[in-house]
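Students often ask why we bother encoding 3D structure as a string. The short answer is that it lets us treat folding as translation between two languages. Here is a chain of 322 residues written in the first language.
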Amino acid sequence: MLGAAACLSGCSTIDYYAHLAKGQYALLAARQSIATLVADPATDDRLRARLKLALEARAFASDQLALPRNGSYTDYADLGRPYVLQNVFATPEFSLDAVEHCFPIAGCVAYRGYYDGARAKAEVERLKAQSYEVHVGNVPAYSTLGWFDDPVLNTMLRWDDDELVGTIFHELAHQQLYLKGDTRFNESFATFVEQQGLRQWHAARGTPPADSTRSQRADQFAELILALRERLKKLYASGLPAPAMRARKQTEIERLRADYRALRDGAWQGYRGYDGWIDGEINNAKLLPFGLYHQWLPGFASLYDRSGKTWPAFFAAARRLA
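And here it is in the second language, the structure alphabet:
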């Protein structure tokens, strides 16, 4: 693969793939058996409790959700940082089309990932020098699609129990089915498995379902962003001169901020969880991830119902659809 990359695009591509290999190797080398850590009296009690929960979720995923049964999420790795990767997104100034990157396994995606923060920063500067708009997203977890036994990461343990359990279901769903080059399909599929899996998890344990308030807020916030994207698409297709388009673009961004604050101070009763996102720089690249995880949820819910609400039949139907 590296030799072919050299023929196609030179030393910079070899260097990037070498950086990915080094980062993945470091992650795998940091793995420790969760069962061993749980049994070790020297393990911190809070860490032990979270890791036990992860093992229970891992078993439930295979036993009850028909997700792959392998070594993924039976090990733990502490990377000593709050995220595993940084994804760099880029777009032209007057377009919502991402600068795409294509990889042998994952297909084409709307970002480039970096284990090394200095490399991510250098890529940001390179793209900005070419007049692209850029956004950096911190990634707490990802799947290698079954090529390696992915560990539970310290970056996943800062979440509450439902997010930890749901993430294990979500990432294993990517191992179950992955369609190259269709991020919306993949993420909507995995998000449906995560959400339905969590419902069954709580039912099996006799615990109350998760508070829906947080997910409702997330959906409402995403709706604001998607509405802005639709307005910007129409603006960018209008053919206005660049100065006028730039001014109108800023007006639409300020409208988003006003709509958010009205929602925050009204229906949300002052909840300020998205203030940091809204108050920071907003550009086309920052809008890219929205909608990827939820667009086809109703379709997958319908497919699950038509499959008799059984996981093997649902997975078979989703594979035919893919």
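Translate back mentally: The two ends are 26 Å apart (CA to CA). Keep this in mind for the problem set.
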